[in-house]
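[RESIDUES AND BACKBONE]
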Amino acid sequence: MFAVLRTLVLGLVLGLLPGCTLRTAQTPDQVSFNVMELTIDGAQQAIRTHRINCEQLTRRYIRRIRTYDQPTHLNAIILFNPNAIERAKRLDRDYAATGHMKRLHCIPVILKDNFDTADLPTQAGSIALQDAPNPPDDAFLVKRLRAQDAIVIAKSN
């Protein structure tokens, strides 16, 4: 089940990020790799070997989405998670303290806006839900993603 979930999550995240190349220059052996070809295992290996950290990876994805989505008025993303960077920093601290990663540690995820998230509004593309309060809890799938340390970075149209 997790193999299928990994493929779906990665496809959802990377599908919006054409031509994204990740460059990190924080180690003497500067490494660059194409995020379009980056697997979950590859991202986690880059974190393990200190070529990038969770915060940097999350910021890179958010920056690429903003680069392609907003200037072109594509409007694929309706809402960015204002807590995504803080969650990434927390995961960096946890990893530094324990050296342990869960299955989706630091994997950025974009959710369709019909998945309830307790920390973000769910409008399902409906004007009628525009001012509705945030849902009381996360949808089942969202709970599972967060339990494995995935980072919800945005909600899509």
